[in-house]
Amino acid sequence: MNTTQLRQKIASQLNNLSLERLTIVSELLDSLEAVEPVQSSTVRKLEPIRRGKTAKAILESTKTWRGDDLEKCLKLVYDARSQAKF
User: Fold this and answer.
1) How confident is the model at residue 9 (pLDDT cuts 50, 70, 90)?
2) Sign, CA torsion 85/10/1/35
3) Residue 78 binned pLDDT confidence (cut-offs 50, 70, 90)
4) Spans of all domains in the chain
5) Contact by Cβ (8 Å): 20, 28
6) What is the b/e burial string over 49-80, where b = at least 16 CB atoms within 10 angstroms of the residue's CB?
7) CA triplet 6, 9, 15: central angle to 5 degrees?
8) In the chain, what is the straight-line distance between the N-terminal and C-terminal CA atoms, in Å?
């Protein structure tokens, strides 16, 4: 599909949308215009930070759960989290 065909398809789709959905599309387009594309030449690949730890070393330092408040802690986590917004 070329640019002209894609623009015609989008125009046709827009003609069939309700006012509410047109508002959403408009807000999306506004947000896309506000974001400047990052030039790939300006992005450098950085080496990962190495701290001398291996997964095995991290696992050796972990311990098992001791206590009777696991259910209470899980409930606190579930109560405190919120719905993701996209």
Assistant:
1) very high
2) negative
3) confident
4) 1-35
5) no
6) eeeeeeeeeeeeeeeeeeeeeeeeeeeeeeee
7) 140
8) 29
The residue written with tokens 């990052």 in the block is: 38
Residue 48: phi and psi, rounded to 5, are: -65, 150
**Has this prediction a pTM greater than 0.70?**
no
Decide: helix, strand or coil at residue 67: coil
pLDDT digits (tens, 9 = 90+) for 32-62: 887 766 665 556 677 776 676 777 777 777 7
DSSP letter for 73, please.
H
Residue 9 identity: K
